[in-house]
Each structure stands twice: as C-alpha cells, then as structure tokens.
Design a protein that fits this description.
Radius of gyration: 19 Å
Keywords: Disulfide bond, Secreted, Signal
Order of helices and strands: HEEEEEE
Subcellular location: Secreted
GO molecular function, one term: toxin activity
Number of helices: 1
Largest sheet: 6 strands, antiparallel
Main location: secreted
Structural class: alpha+beta
Shape: globular
Length: 85
C-alpha cells in the first residue's frame, strides 16, 4: 500500500503545475491592478521615465526583459509574484 502512494506522490511532485506569475499592471494616471500573466510571459517589469517634467511609470508582464538603465529611463525586470512594486 505504501509503494503505490509513494509513486503517486512522486509523480504529482514532478508534474509541471503550469505556474503563472502575477505582476502589477499600471500606466501612469490609471489605477494599479494585479494581472495573472499569460503562460508565455515569465517576467514582471517596471519602467519609469520623465516626460514633460512628470514621472511616468508603466508596469506589467513581458516574455523577456534585459536589464536597462539610461539617464532618462529605467527598466526593472524580475521573476517573482508582484515583484514590480
């Protein structure tokens, strides 16, 4: 009885649960929400820049995201739930 249970448990632990990441979703001037990213998007991002003297912020899900920094725009990418606060 123990052997079949152990085999079933091992099989369940090895299966891909189809985990999807949750990210903050936001554009400046709109309310911030949390979105469940599509299966093909593995990163959360937060981009910020100055436009007309105002700080603009954009947040969401993205498939791939290199780290990027410049004097006028910053981009943060991460792979944990709601890490783009």
């Amino acid at each position: 009885m123990k052997a079949p249970f152990a085999i079933l448990l091992a099989a369940c632990l090895c299966m891909d649960g189809g985990y999807t990441i949750k990210c903050y979703n936001h554009l400046s001037g709109t309310p911030e929400t949390i979105e469940i990213c599509p299966d093909s998007q593995y990163f959360c991002y937060k981009s910020s820049w100055i436009d007309g003297g105002e700080m603009e912020i954009e947040k969401g899900c993205v498939a791939s995201c290199p780290e990027f920094r410049s004097s006028y725009k910053s981009l943060l990418c991460c792979r944990k739930d709601k890490c783009n606060q």
